[in-house]
Design a protein that fits this description.
alpha/beta, globular, 327 residues, Rossmann fold, eight-stranded mixed sheet, 11 helices, four-stranded antiparallel sheet
């Protein structure tokens, strides 16, 4: 039985506009997430991953952030057309987000248990009493591996890994249908990273939650995701199942570069391979394929025309190397 579609992003554009310039952060991306499915959004810093997550929750800066076109459908409702009250119920209730840095995600002067309780009070559709909310706080902390006896402690009394667990507890306290995890392990050491990823996987199975996992680490993608979208300069340039991305014969040159930057345990090398150059300036994107200034396979057509989409089954590639769409 095919799971129902939970989130659909259609031809989404996001830009930041100031008096000085326009930043084209997201440029016409589309993807879907089904119930209990995990989609990995992977790419370098500046690819537009976080802007995509903020757009889904309508959390872009009021003065500068814009969504000039596109649609974001959640359970059949267009998020971009929701009013303030509908958005309040959506954020933290149906869709929750784990932000990049747990150090800045928590209020330093409020005990962690009270911060979890605040989320439950804001989304108290079940009509829970004060005592029931306290019990739920205890359960949620225990769920992420923190003794409930520590609920009256403040964020500075927790390590970085424990702070991230508290942030996850807040995100999961209202049993969201979709969890957006924005590089949830970036600020943590490798051992704690593994624990947090294992925790997210365990909770996903237990609570039947869909996940949008944002990362620049293909190792995390392999461990946690069902489908993968490779993002570059605000565009999705490769999309498919984990098997497509890790095992298929054809890949976008950028994806090949990302794989080349992964250390090979069984091979002796002096240096890791690198992708030459930098992500293009989003205020002045190059014509044609946005990756062409860094691509080893660049052809004249790459500098002039947007690449077509090549498709084999669920595997999509946006690259001139593979010709026109076959799907």
């Amino acid at each position: 039985m095919v799971a129902k579609e939970l989130l659909r992003v259609e031809d989404l554009y996001v830009m930041y506009k100031t008096d000085m310039e326009e930043v084209h952060a997201v440029n016409g991306i589309s993807f879907t997430i089904r119930e209990q499915e995990t989609l990995g959004l992977v790419g370098e810093t500046g690819a537009g991953k976080t802007s995509t997550a903020l757009a889904i929750l309508r959390l872009l800066p009021d003065r500068t952030g814009r969504i000039p076109s596109g649609n974001i459908w959640f359970q059949g409702k267009n998020i971009l057309e929701m009013d303030h009250e509908e958005l309040r119920r959506l954020r933290g209730g149906d869709i929750a987000m784990i932000f990049q840095d747990p150090m800045t995600s928590l209020n330093p002067v409020i005990p962690v248990g009270q911060q979890i309780a605040e989320a439950l009070l804001l989304h108290n559709e079940e009509g829970l009493t004060r005592e029931q909310i306290e019990d739920r706080v205890d359960e949620t902390l225990e769920l992420v591996g923190i003794p409930s006896s520590r609920k009256n402690e403040y964020p500075h009394q927790f390590s970085g890994g424990m702070k991230q667990r508290v942030v996850i507890a807040i995100a999961l306290s209202c049993n969201p249908r979709l969890l957006i995890a924005d590089e949830p392990t970036t600020a943590l050491d490798v051992t704690i990273q593994a624990q947090v990823l294992a925790l997210i996987n365990e909770l996903k199975e237990k609570l039947k939650t869909a996940v949008l996992m944002i990362t620049h680490d293909l190792g995390i993608i392999a461990e946690t995701c069902d489908k993968v979208a490779v993002m570059y300069a605000g565009e999705i340039i490769e999309y498919g199942t984990v098997e497509d991305i890790f095992e298929a014969d054809k890949h976008h040159p950028y994806t090949v570069g990302l794989f080349g930057a992964i250390p090979k345990i069984h091979e002796e090398t002096d240096r890791l391979e690198q992708i030459e150059g930098l992500m293009p300036d989003p205020t002045d994107l190059p014509p044609g394929c946005k990756f062409h200034p860094r691509c080893k396979h660049c052809m004249p057509v790459c500098r002039e025309k947007e690449p077509p989409v090549f498709q084999e089954g669920d595997h999509l590639l946006k690259c001139h190397l593979f010709g026109n769409s076959s799907g």
